[in-house]
Amino acid sequence: MKSLVRWGATLGLVGSTLLLTVFGVNFPVLALSEQQIKDKLDAVPVYLITNDKGLPLSRALPDGQNGQKGGGSVTGVYMSRQEAQAFITELRNTKGKDPKLDEVVKSLQVTAVPLGIIYQQLQETKNQPNRLVFAFKPVEQEIQGALALLRQSGQKVDQFKSVPVFAVRFAPEQGYVPIQMTSDKQQLIPLFLSKQDAQGLLNQVKPKYPKADIQVIDVDGVIKTLQSKNDSWLTQVLLVPSPESREYIKTLPRDNAPKAPGASQPKKLQR
């Protein structure tokens, strides 16, 4: 698990301003490799609570839960650095009766890791009896935004159990709206972790495409699609972190940041 707290300069890609560009380019159909999927997920920072040795804070699972043998443990993965820090603050404000435990709480800190590292760890341990288990902590504001959009589309939903992802479409039954990175003019298909960002892109395309809308997906559906589909446009998918995470990304060194691939016309993701 120590590898989870190592950080590389892999998050510089989305620091640029996004500029809308509509296009249609055909590329050969190529399946994405595990490394390509990891690279895409690496664009999104997630946040673990770790101790002074860099080990993630985990809680024990009852024997047999989630298919685990011998109990196992689960590690919380926050989508918001601020919410992870708020949890630590809450723990510190709770007076305990165990001095050793209080000392551990004092040493806790928020550590950012690429989402791709979490994915890699899950893939490497998925067939092990005590495989790693991560509990994602979505941002409540994004959950409520996703639920509101789903209800607007006529779906009757009371909860959203995954991390929501927002994609802008030309129309409900048409493809996704692409963007262009101003830094290198690469054409990409953005999948936003923030409804606010998706709304910004929607506002740009609405005058020309009145039926344009925001589709709500989830991170599990995105990963499943990347793993199972051979559509060429998937090479152009770009996961766009939240504004909070982009601000964090700006503080990181940009050397050896990943490069974005070329472009092709998108179709639907599965949810």
TrEMBL record:
Transmembrane segments: none annotated. Signal peptide: none annotated. Gene3D superfamilies: 3.40.1350.100. InterPro entries: Tic22-like. GO terms for biological process: protein transport. It comes from the Bacteria. Residues 249-271 are annotated as: Disordered. This is Tic22-like family. It comes from Cylindrospermum stagnale PCC 7417.
